[in-house]
Amino acid sequence: MPLPPDRSHVPTEHAHVDSASLDRMTTLDVVSLMAEEGRVAAAALDRIAVDLAAFVDALVPRLEAGGRLVYLGAGTSGRLGVLDASECPPTFQSEPGQIVGLIAGGDAALRRSSEQREDERMDAVDQLERIGLVPADTVLGITAGGTTPWPLGGIEHARIVGCTTGLLCCAPVDGSIDVDHLLCLDSGPEILTGSTRLKSGTATKLALNTITTAAFVRLGKVHGNRMVDIRATNDKLHDRAIRVLRSYDEELTRREADSLLARCDGELKTAIVVLRTAQDPDAARASITRSGGFLADIIGE
What we know:
The chain is an alpha/beta fold. It is built from eleven helices and seven strands.
């Protein structure tokens, strides 16, 4: 068996100076150190705010034009991408295929670890071909150490296709990786050496939260700080939709709000426009389409 590449230079593989006695720490000391490392992850996000904003600003018009955001990752990185993609439809009523999460080893790897698949660059290419990757798409590779072959192979293929590309990592990478947007969360060593599901995973989740939230704000899926593009498909969302709708008219009762939502097929944004403009639901939907989804352009707030 050939020797693997030497990754001793990658900061996520280094030993953390504050956790050298981790096996002898009290439970409280371990918990406190983990909490401190969570703050380090948040600080790493803050340091790349400008780069993240630039990525979102490049992404939004591509989504508006019908392109997709495709996450590529292995292990924890892949699971986080799939998680973020899965949460966009219920949060923003986005099309299920607009944000796509792909993981090395396929969906089976979401539950059963498939570490050996992360070295298979062509598997990423195969998955991208299966979803019909096109130049309008944006591909973001996710790899804590910045060296995982699977997402890097996918990025290389995406560049050949003509996609906009990005790399989200938690350690500095060398200049040989050719991407349009390098998002480097330099979060440092893990308290459990090499376990990038910890601080690196936290920083990555924060970054993905930021990317999709900022993008969908820019796409008109939010009014003020309210989720307005939700559909009342379960009790939690039903209750939330009622409460949000009532925030636009304090005199509206829960029963009246519920009745209005029913008239609008559970579509909160449609119900808000009906409430504030007295249009019927079909006219409200037409107004929403004309405004590009931005409620402020319809109800003047």
